[in-house]
Structure prediction request, 615 residues.
Amino acid sequence: MLRAVKGLRGLATYLTRNALENGSLTDGARMANTDTSYSSLDAFRAVARPIMWTIFVFSMAVNALMLTAPLYMLQVYDRVLGSRSEETLLALSILVLFLMTMMGVLDYLRGRVSARVGAQLQDGLDARVFSAELKRARQSGQTQTGLQDLEAVQRLMASPVFLSLFDLPWTPLFLAAIFVFHPWLGWLALSGGGVLIALALLNQRRNRAPLREAAAAARTAEITALGLQNEAELVRSLGMQSSVFARWRQERKASLALAMQASDGVGGYTTATKTLRMVLQSAMLGLGAYLVLQNQLTAGAMIAASILLGRALAPIEQVIGQWAAVDRARAGWSGLVELLEAVPEEAPRLPLPRPSAALNVHQLSLVPPGDTTPVLRGVSFALRPGEAVGVIGSSGAGKSSLARAVIGVWPPSGGQIRLDHASLDQFDGDVLGRLIGYLPQRVALFPGTIAENIARLDPGADPEAIVAAAKRADAHEMILRQPLGYDTPTAGPQARLSGGQIQRVGLARALYGDPVLLVLDEPNANLDHDGSQALNRAVRDMTASGGAALIMAHRPAAIEVCDKLLMLEGGQVRMFGPREEVLRKTVLNHADLQSTQAMPGRVAVDEKPWAEVAS
Prediction:
């Protein structure tokens, strides 16, 4: 018996290895070291199809061995008890023990295989879905759920209800076997199975919408809670804790109400299914007993028919009871299909040589993702190596939108943006990110250390390059003054960086990897005088080494090192030229002039009017 068990296990291992020899799906220890990825769901299907057939073959064997118990009962009642043969009972018992052991081993192995198929699905599509989510979020401006959909499918494939779906096709076989004992028993089982299938279909139809609404409401409440936790200090400082709790509690109650409604609906069908199955099994015994009394059936056949009925209806009952997981996985699969079809995989690009810092923007028009109104119209300018161009204008003029277009986050609706004669879409996204250093208006540091954030979370980052970037941003000494230096956490209770320090770490991150172009959006918004001077030195070093800088400025100190100025007004270019010329033509705001003249003793660069900066 042990030799047979080892043989079956070896067969299972051989089948799974050969079916996924190119997909690297073996055991759990090896799967953690695989790096298999799929470009689409079709690519995964092609690899997983042989494994699904393996699971089908195992399921066929398991369901065939399920006949062992009823046949054993039939032989015991009809032969052993009649002949009173202990030898026959012993032989039958040994045979049944062996067959049931084989059934258990095969059932265990198919569970292992299905769980690994689900894990391989998630592991192989993580990168594809993750990148598609990011691209779709940039295009639509909405939060995507592709990774949650992928996890829902994986959870279903690792659950017992997934194997029940493979057992469902064998339900007619068990019902047909009952017909062999007696037609009346067969018709009773068939009618009961029909009612259960009808309940399953009704369960699917009635509860699909409530289950999805409950899941959507739960996600909304979770997103709200995460957003409030990220702004915990602001909530506490403004005395908003009660208000935000009331807002979250309202969403939470709506989510719980929908969850209870869906649970009640599914629970009602689950209870009805379980009750009906018990009634059917009792009815089967009762009808069988009547047929035994009429000498139309043996006692062994009566017991065997009852066991077969339970086995035939068990998959239906389990699918109905776990319908929430099945429906969530179905919705997740549909969501994955829609996401991956809407965001096709980008074709590999030919690696281009390192470009020069020549940026040409020609007739750029830009419509933000998810919007229909253009924020930039007909913007044209050129940035040469060794130059720094400042972009000025009032709030809402389109400065930050121009920055997002230049770094390739928002694709142009019209016109062109070229870096050293190559359009931005000719560069791979990660390559372009290393060529253009970006400091956003609101700097966000990722969970990790200061060093990891400067290195952009690159696990193979060169420590010398990290320190060099920090020194170029004049942040090295500031970082060394932190409790753990470069290993100081940027999130959690040990995070103690101020707004200005975060901005300087963000500048070091933008300078990491020696980019050819810097795009700085309001870079000195949180900097003091020393920080502004450090920023200017970094820009000077950048242009002196042949790089270029594009600075979106709202304060005069940010354009102190700029060679040219681009003035935006209403999304259009109002002026572009040498800094002094643009400043002379700029009409200063009267209120700003008065506030500056009222404080003649303050000489910080940030408080000089635009005209003084030009001189």
About this structure: The mean pLDDT is 78. The first helix runs from residue 2 to 19. The chain has 23 helices and ten strands.
